[in-house]
Design brief:
- By secondary structure, this protein is of the alpha+beta class.
- It folds into 2 domains: 61 residues, no CATH class; 133 residues, no CATH class.
- The strands form 3 sheets. A 5-stranded mixed β-sheet has the order 6-9-8-7-10, with helices on one face. Strands 2-3-4 form a 3-stranded antiparallel β-sheet, covered by helices on one side.
Length: 213
């Protein structure tokens, strides 16, 4: 029987450490001890039946169905950051809209699971990724100015979801990237193609993508 990571679970190996992001539970975990050893054998294709049984019992893997979709969003390595280029002052109407969107996302995350919020975000995004750089600069500037009115520290998820939604309203398909690093830390940011809209490039380079929507 073939096994795969169970639905909603995402994995990234960083410096030999196996990090899991459980989207359904909105939780990160770092595998240790015998579980890490068994998981290493599993992803390298050397797992024995006892490994499969143990990982299945821990709800980390599940039997792979023949019709299971295996495609994942493609990660584009960032080349530039609009933040590094220096952003203009965001306009007041756009900044107000950014603040309202972040307030709504925060309320949504209190009422609903992250997986549900991201599923709705994905359904609402346009198909096309092509965009006018001036529009990207304007959106990034509006969210940067919003940071003058509310603290954006530890708000990367709220800002990322809100910005992705704001881009969608302008017909632009942004990517919300969840990344991890060691010693363990997690972060998320927004990209359009190879352009980062939320963070300096030097910050993003510390993280490896674990989930992308």
């Amino acid at each position: 029987m073939d096994f795969a990571l169970r639905s909603g679970l995402h994995h990234r190996e960083v410096d030999g450490a196996h990090i899991l992001f459980d989207l359904t539970a909105d939780r990160y975990s770092l595998l240790t001890g015998e579980t890490a050893v068994r998981f290493e054998r599993f992803i390298s294709g050397r797992a024995a039946d006892t490994d499969h049984a143990a990982l299945f019992a821990q709800d980390l893997i599940a039997p792979q169905r023949a019709d299971t979709a295996t495609g994942r969003a493609t990660f584009t390595v960032p080349a530039v950051s609009l933040v590094d280029d220096g952003l203009p002052d965001g306009g007041l109407p756009g900044t107000a809209a950014a603040l309202w969107l972040m307030h709504r996302v925060r309320a949504d995350l209190r009422r609903r699971r992250l997986a549900s919020v991201l599923e709705r975000l994905g359904r609402a995004r346009p198909v096309a990724t092509a965009s006018d750089r001036e529009v990207l600069i304007r959106v990034a500037a509006e969210f940067q100015r919003a940071g003058r009115f509310i603290s954006l520290q530890e708000q990367c998820l709220v800002r990322g979801i809100a910005m992705t939604a704001a881009l969608g309203r302008r017909g632009i398909r942004g990517s919300l990237v969840f990344g991890v690093t060691m010693p363990f830390a997690a972060h998320c940011w927004v990209q359009v193609g190879d352009q980062v809209l939320t963070d300096p490039l030097d910050i993003i380079r510390h993280y490896q993508p674990i989930f992308i929507i």
